[in-house]
Specification:
With 239 residues, the protein is mainly beta. The protein contains 3 helices and 15 strands. It has helices at 44-47, 143-146, 174-177; strands at residues 4-10, 19-24, 30-34, 40-42, 62-67, 74-79, 87-91, 98-100, 116-122, 131-136, 157-161, 169-171, 187-193, 202-207, 213-215. The strands form 4 sheets. Strands 1-2-3-4 form a 4-stranded antiparallel sheet. A 4-stranded antiparallel sheet has the order 5-6-7-8, with no helix packed on it.
Length: 239
């Protein structure tokens, strides 16, 4: 029943138990609800995550989840195939009912052309709001011969979270984040971490026919950050 390409473990209904959201290629997405007894129940269609707003499946490639708005609503973002928009399923508070708000939140039409793989939420500019980045690249090396609007190598895409009052996300242009991030590659997996320990988040993009790219975040916006190192003892009393 599935062509699974990505999974997001998240407590979807805030009951203290981790659920599983699975992104599937050309078939319905899954939401496995934790039954608190070691088993899961698949409720993707009932929750609204399985299909798009028209009841159709999409080519889901990448997935991540976050509470990205001030109302603490859970969002599940999914990167889909070329000529399909990103999905952004947003829940009612602590609910298992979702609606795709990608267009309303500004992540829809701007993403449609690209073939999205790696996707994650991150606060790239340290303004306290979670942004979204996708790694992109087509499957067919000669796709431009068939579709003039498509290319095998594609740039990444970064969406800045403007906040609730300003209307969700907007694409970040190259002049605002550097041309290296938007170098066309056959993008696949992606990850982020503060690699150089300077407080902001750096990005790694994996690609076909090329080495992984480590993109150092050198923003100088004056925003603050805090790193915590937790220390304590184990249950046995040992350090």
């Amino acid at each position: 029943m599935a062509k699974s390409l990505a999974v997001a473990p998240v407590d979807a209904d805030n009951d203290g138990w981790i659920d599983l959201v699975v992104a599937n290629d050309t078939v319905q997405n899954f939401l496995f609800h934790n039954q608190h007894d070691g088993t899961f129940k698949e409720i993707g269609a009932r929750s609204g995550i399985a299909y798009d707003a028209y009841g159709l499946t999409r080519g889901a490639m990448g997935i991540d989840s976050a509470r990205f708005r001030s109302d603490d609503a859970l969002g599940i973002a999914i990167g889909n195939y070329a000529n399909e928009m990103n999905a952004l399923y947003v829940a009612r508070r602590d609910s298992l009912l979702f609606a795709d708000e990608a267009t309303k939140e500004g992540m829809g039409p701007a993403s449609q052309k690209l073939l999205k793989f790696g996707l994650f939420f991150l606060d790239y500019d340290l303004d306290g709001r979670l942004d979204v980045l996708t790694a992109n690249g087509h499957l067919e090396p000669d796709i431009h011969l068939v579709q003039s609007t498509q290319q095998y190598r594609q740039p990444a895409q970064l969406f800045w979270n403007r906040g609730d009052l300003k209307g969700g996300f907007m694409p970040v242009p190259p002049e605002k984040c550097g041309n290296d991030l938007y170098k066309p590659i056959v993008g696949r997996g992606s990850a982020f971490a503060d690699i150089d320990l300077d407080g902001d988040l750096d990005v790694v993009l994996a690609q076909i026919s090329g080495p992984p790219l480590l993109l150092r975040n050198d923003q100088r916006l004056g925003h603050h950050w805090l790193r915590l190192k937790l220390t304590g003892r184990s249950a046995t009393g040992m350090p």
